[in-house]
Amino acid sequence: PQAQPLNEEEMARLALGLRTRLQNDAGNVEGWLMLGRTGMVLGNAGTATGAYANAYRLDPKNRDAALGYAEALTRSSDPEDNRRGGELLRQLVSRDHTDIRVLSLYAFSAFEQQRFGEAVAAWEMMLKLLPAGDARRAVIERSIRLAQEK
Length: 150
Description:
- By secondary structure, the chain is mainly alpha-helical.
- It has helices at residues 8-24, 29-42, 45-58, 63-74, 79-95, 100-112, 116-129, 136-149.
- It has 2 domains: 1-78, Tetratricopeptide repeat domain (Serine Threonine Protein Phosphatase 5, Tetratricopeptide repeat, Alpha Horseshoe), CATH 1.25.40; 96-150, no CATH class.
- TPR repeats lie at residues 29-62.
- This is C-type cytochrome biogenesis protein.
- Residues 2-136 form the Cytochrome c-type biogenesis protein H TPR domain.
């Protein structure tokens, strides 16, 4: 039998349980990552950002921690968070410029911060990496045109 996805109340209980467990096991990177993901799903930016920050502080080389933290920062309403998230994404791209997820988040972050040339460069790199029939190509091509019009 296939498990049913958690509803919002169950996700909130999961987050509370994780928070409680992490009070006694603050060095658990995987626990912080799970709490960060749960916070993102619930739309709780504070929980997500704090959890990903802890995971990243504990293991700065952990790609999931770095990417989660960068994503939470770029979605923040605080311009300083956005700047820090963009900087972290630049570091991730410089480490691995073939990671589609990193490039995508970097491109959209750069676009949001009106760094259109950087956004176009990241999207063009994605086009080189994606296979010809990939459905994402059309969205990326539209995004490039939009950025070039700015």
